Each structure stands twice: as structure tokens, then as C-alpha cells.
Amino acid sequence: MRPAFVLHDHRRPRPHLDLRLEEDGVLRSWAVPRGMPTTPGENRLAIAVPDHAMDHLTYTDADKSIADTGWWEEHDRTERRLLFTLHGSESRRYALIRTGQGWLLHLTKDQPPG
Question: Domain coordinates of the chain in residue numbers?
Fold first, then answer.
């Protein structure tokens, strides 16, 4: 079975996206204050937040809606980087890069076809 992902459009306390990747029975989660990068080579701050329960795959409320959902594919992982593709409304390849203080979400120049 393919691991799921969800992007939540979260409007409080400030508008941001939540990236959640299914792994080991939980959703690993990052808050992305300025939204997902849209241009290859672009970086966005990603703030690691506590893991969420699997029921957050479909969770919505007055301040949180689902922006995209689907499955994700891991390509490479080291202590400092996770390279993966989100397969949702479109397929986009990203890298989560650990910096000294936190994480950057990077849209890779090498994108899947289609």
C-alpha cells in the first residue's frame, strides 16, 4: 500500500500550509508558512511540528481544509535530506532539507513527466 499525504490549508493563527506525510503509522508534519514552492529551485521555510494521527488525512474544521491529498514516494533519504514526490492533483518532486535551525522545503529542478 502506498503511503498517503495531505496538504492542509490552515488559516489560524496565520495562513499557512501543513504538509503531512504518512510514515510508521503516523503523519510526519511540517508547517509551511509561505506555502509550497512553485518554481523549480525555490526554497520555503518548513517548520517541523509534532506528528499527527492518521485521522488527519481527512480532517477538516472551520480553520483547516484539504488543499491536496494523494500518495507520496520516497526517492532518497539521508540524515539531512528527504527527496520525495507528491502524487496528488499533480505530481511534484520536493526535497526537505535539514538546516542548522530547522528545515527548508525545496522544489527540485528535476520534475516527473506529465
Answer: 4-107
Q: Which of the two residues, 99 and 113, has the higher pLDDT score?
A: 99
pLDDT at 6 over 80: yes
**How many of the other CB atoms lie within 10 Å of CB of 110?**
8
Q: Which residues of 97-108 are buried (b: 16+ CB within 10 A; e: fewer)?
A: beeeeebbbbbb
The residue that leads in pLDDT, 101 or 83, is: 83
Q: Which of 36, 88, 32, 92 is nearest to 57 (CA)?
A: 88
The answer, yes or no, to whether the previous bond of 13 is cis (omega within 30 of 0) is: yes
C-alpha cell at 20: 503531512
84 touches 74 (CB < 8 A)? yes
- For residue 106 the three cell numbers come to 525545496
pLDDT for res 114:
66
Q: How far is CA 43 from the centre of its chain?
A: 13
Count of Cβ atoms closer than 10 Å to residue 37 Cβ: 19
pLDDT at 101: 83
